[in-house]
């Protein structure tokens, strides 16, 4: 039988990697909720959660347990199937992005050299982009299926916001891709290991990308899809129990993944500054790289929270104006200038 | 059958079944969602042909942007079976006949095409859909049609803005 002839050990290796990466991102998302409350408390000069466990570190478990045991309500007038599909899609698309992030350099275990990346495809960034553009379906389907005017309004806002900021994000990425000449995230990290980090060449590009990432994750100051002061609770108003938990959770996973993407694209990925990784043993280099990437990611997650608890929310027309009239022209100018400089240097 | 054939036939079945579901679904929102499944299946076919760039662009542009706008409009109009005008059974019957004739015309056209005689799709080793090949072809051989197409899009956008303006 050569029906399905391929390397089974390779398949098992990838499956194990997928399970590890997904559980790690879930645990990190759990502790992001805790970190969010602690950071908010710190910024507002409060104590924050400190009851469950030492320094309150068991708080996420308590929150999760509470969400699981809450009564599950599906509104009678809602579309039942789509109502359940909404949070599933939000979670799925949040998880799928981590497939192309290179978490570290190669690891040598049991005589095999294992890539710390689920798939090194040559369209890495575009894959991330594609999955992000799917992410809006979770919000739209959930908001529509709830059969509630506030939810629908929030879903429409969410969709137009994500589409508008995707454009500026794509344009800011094109400038970066002109420099790297490759769409594979692994190649981009390796180039940065050899030379300077991309932030040195693309400071404006990074700024634009960061603002767009805030908008794509529906984070403050762009959290209009869940603006509680005008839309009650936004697109997940009718949701309760763990389905609500899925929506909230997917936001934190998105934050984790977009921090990972930013660290990879602009801040060298798993590269440690001023250290020649090739001199270290293979496994040591991999672990050091992983720790470096995680530290960068945690910094960006902190930045997300810092922004949320510092800036007030935009008004909706301001949001659209910033997206279309400020971000896109800036990104276009950045792209043209980069293109001109690349052309001059190559000649 | 190798892995590629199994994938090809299951993707084809998925594409055809969901395309039929687009037409059969009573609720327009379901139709849009099935159409998204069709785009996914077609992107799967592109990946089988090693055209990864085309596959992902198909997803970003069609499934990610255009279908969101479709869904947007349908949700705002809140169409459903009660308010939608129902066509008579004869209209549906002749619609199926006309569509079938068009399909058989296209199929006969493709089968009799001289370029395609004795050729099969390049699985895995084809390079035509990779971003490098595609970029070189677009900006060297087809640069004028490409630029004209982009001007066409620009004029469409300007036209939409002019029509959409209040005063």
TrEMBL record, chain A:
<keyword id="KW-0812">Transmembrane</keyword>
<keyword id="KW-1278">Translocase</keyword>
<keyword id="KW-0472">Membrane</keyword>
<comment type="similarity">
    <text>Belongs to the complex I subunit 1 family.</text>
</comment>
<protein>
    <recommendedName>
        <fullName>NADH-quinone oxidoreductase subunit H</fullName>
        <ecNumber>7.1.1.-</ecNumber>
    </recommendedName>
</protein>
<keyword id="KW-0560">Oxidoreductase</keyword>
<feature type="transmembrane region" description="Helical">
    <location>
        <begin position="167"/>
        <end position="189"/>
    </location>
</feature>
<keyword id="KW-1133">Transmembrane helix</keyword>
<keyword id="KW-0830">Ubiquinone</keyword>
<dbReference type="GO" id="GO:0050136">
    <property type="term" value="F:NADH dehydrogenase (quinone) (non-electrogenic) activity"/>
</dbReference>
<dbReference type="Pfam" id="PF00146">
    <property type="entry name" value="NADHdh"/>
</dbReference>
<keyword id="KW-0874">Quinone</keyword>
<feature type="transmembrane region" description="Helical">
    <location>
        <begin position="246"/>
        <end position="268"/>
    </location>
</feature>
<dbReference type="InterPro" id="IPR001694">
    <property type="entry name" value="NADH_UbQ_OxRdtase_su1/FPO"/>
</dbReference>
<comment type="subunit">
    <text>NDH-1 is composed of 14 different subunits. Subunits NuoA, H, J, K, L, M, N constitute the membrane sector of the complex.</text>
</comment>
<dbReference type="InterPro" id="IPR018086">
    <property type="entry name" value="NADH_UbQ_OxRdtase_su1_CS"/>
</dbReference>
<feature type="transmembrane region" description="Helical">
    <location>
        <begin position="280"/>
        <end position="306"/>
    </location>
</feature>
<keyword id="KW-1003">Cell membrane</keyword>
<keyword id="KW-0520">NAD</keyword>
<comment type="function">
    <text>NDH-1 shuttles electrons from NADH, via FMN and iron-sulfur (Fe-S) centers, to quinones in the respiratory chain. The immediate electron acceptor for the enzyme in this species is believed to be ubiquinone. Couples the redox reaction to proton translocation (for every two electrons transferred, four hydrogen ions are translocated across the cytoplasmic membrane), and thus conserves the redox energy in a proton gradient. This subunit may bind ubiquinone.</text>
</comment>
<feature type="transmembrane region" description="Helical">
    <location>
        <begin position="6"/>
        <end position="31"/>
    </location>
</feature>
<feature type="transmembrane region" description="Helical">
    <location>
        <begin position="195"/>
        <end position="215"/>
    </location>
</feature>
From TrEMBL, chain B:
<keyword id="KW-1003">Cell membrane</keyword>
<feature type="transmembrane region" description="Helical">
    <location>
        <begin position="142"/>
        <end position="163"/>
    </location>
</feature>
<comment type="function">
    <text>NDH-1 shuttles electrons from NADH, via FMN and iron-sulfur (Fe-S) centers, to quinones in the respiratory chain. Couples the redox reaction to proton translocation (for every two electrons transferred, four hydrogen ions are translocated across the cytoplasmic membrane), and thus conserves the redox energy in a proton gradient.</text>
</comment>
<keyword id="KW-0874">Quinone</keyword>
<keyword id="KW-1133">Transmembrane helix</keyword>
<keyword id="KW-0812">Transmembrane</keyword>
<dbReference type="InterPro" id="IPR042106">
    <property type="entry name" value="Nuo/plastoQ_OxRdtase_6_NuoJ"/>
</dbReference>
<feature type="transmembrane region" description="Helical">
    <location>
        <begin position="31"/>
        <end position="49"/>
    </location>
</feature>
<dbReference type="Pfam" id="PF00499">
    <property type="entry name" value="Oxidored_q3"/>
</dbReference>
<feature type="transmembrane region" description="Helical">
    <location>
        <begin position="55"/>
        <end position="77"/>
    </location>
</feature>
<dbReference type="InterPro" id="IPR001457">
    <property type="entry name" value="NADH_UbQ/plastoQ_OxRdtase_su6"/>
</dbReference>
<feature type="transmembrane region" description="Helical">
    <location>
        <begin position="6"/>
        <end position="24"/>
    </location>
</feature>
<keyword id="KW-0472">Membrane</keyword>
<protein>
    <recommendedName>
        <fullName>NADH-quinone oxidoreductase subunit J</fullName>
        <ecNumber>7.1.1.-</ecNumber>
    </recommendedName>
</protein>
<keyword id="KW-0520">NAD</keyword>
<comment type="similarity">
    <text>Belongs to the complex I subunit 6 family.</text>
</comment>
<feature type="transmembrane region" description="Helical">
    <location>
        <begin position="89"/>
        <end position="111"/>
    </location>
</feature>
């Amino acid at each position: 039988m050569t029906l399905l002839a391929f390397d089974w050990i390779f398949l098992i290796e990838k499956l194990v990697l997928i399970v590890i990466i997904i559980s790690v991102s879930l645990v990190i998302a759990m502790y992001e909720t805790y970190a969010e409350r602690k950071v908010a408390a710190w910024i507002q000069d409060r104590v924050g959660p400190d009851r469950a466990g030492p320094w309150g570190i068991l708080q996420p478990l308590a929150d999760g347990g509470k969400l699981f045991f809450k009564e599950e309500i599906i509104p009678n007038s809602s579309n039942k199937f789509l109502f359940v599909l909404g949070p599933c899609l939000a979670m799925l698309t949040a998880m799928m992005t981590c497939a192309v992030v290179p978490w570290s350099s190669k690891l040598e275990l049991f005589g095999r050299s294992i890539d710390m990346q689920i798939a090194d495809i040559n369209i890495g960034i575009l894959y991330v982009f594609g999955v992000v553009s799917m992410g809006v379906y979770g919000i739209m389907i959930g908001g529509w299926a709830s059969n509630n005017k506030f939810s629908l309004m929030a879903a429409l806002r969410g969709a137009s916001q994500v589409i508008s900021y995707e454009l500026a994000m794509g344009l800011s990425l094109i400038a970066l891709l002109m420099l790297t000449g490759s769409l594979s995230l692994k190649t981009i990290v390796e180039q940065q290991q050899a030379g300077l980090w991309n932030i040195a060449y693309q400071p404006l590009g990074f700024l634009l990308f960061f603002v767009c990432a805030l908008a794509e994750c529906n984070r403050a100051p762009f959290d209009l899809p869940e603006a509680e002061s005008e839309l009650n609770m936004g697109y997940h108003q009718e949701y309760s129990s763990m389905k609500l938990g899925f929506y909230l959770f997917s936001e934190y996973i998105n934050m984790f993944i977009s921090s990972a993407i930013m660290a990879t694209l602009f801040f060298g990925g798993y590269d440690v500054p001023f250290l020649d990784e090739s001199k270290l043993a293979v496994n040591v280099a991999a672990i050091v790289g992983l720790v470096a990437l995680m530290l960068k990611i945690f910094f960006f997650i902190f930045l997300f929270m810092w922004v949320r608890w510092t800036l007030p929310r935009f008004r909706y027309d301001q949001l659209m104006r910033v997206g279309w009239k400020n971000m896109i022209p800036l990104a276009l100018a950045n792209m043209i200038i980069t293109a001109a400089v690349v052309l001059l240097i190559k000649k | 059958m190798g892995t590629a054939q199994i994938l090809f036939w299951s993707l084809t079945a998925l594409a055809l079944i969901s395309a039929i579901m687009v037409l059969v679904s009573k609720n327009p929102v379901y139709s849009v969602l099935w159409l998204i499944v069709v785009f996914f299946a077609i992107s799967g076919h592109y990946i089988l042909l090693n055209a990864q760039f085309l596959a992902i662009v198909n997803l970003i542009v069609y499934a990610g942007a255009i279908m969101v706008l479709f869904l947007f409009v349908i949700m705002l109009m809140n169409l459903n079976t009660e308010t939608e005008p129902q066509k008579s059974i004869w209209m549906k019957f002749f619609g199926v006949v006309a569509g079938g004739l068009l399909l058989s015309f296209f199929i006969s056209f493709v089968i009799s095409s001289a370029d395609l005689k004795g050729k099969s799709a390049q699985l895995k080793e084809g390079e035509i859909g990779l971003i490098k090949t595609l970029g070189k072809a677009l900006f060297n051989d087809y640069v004028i049609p490409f630029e004209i197409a982009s001007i066409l899009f620009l004029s469409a956008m300007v036209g939409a803005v002019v029509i959409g303006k209040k005063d």
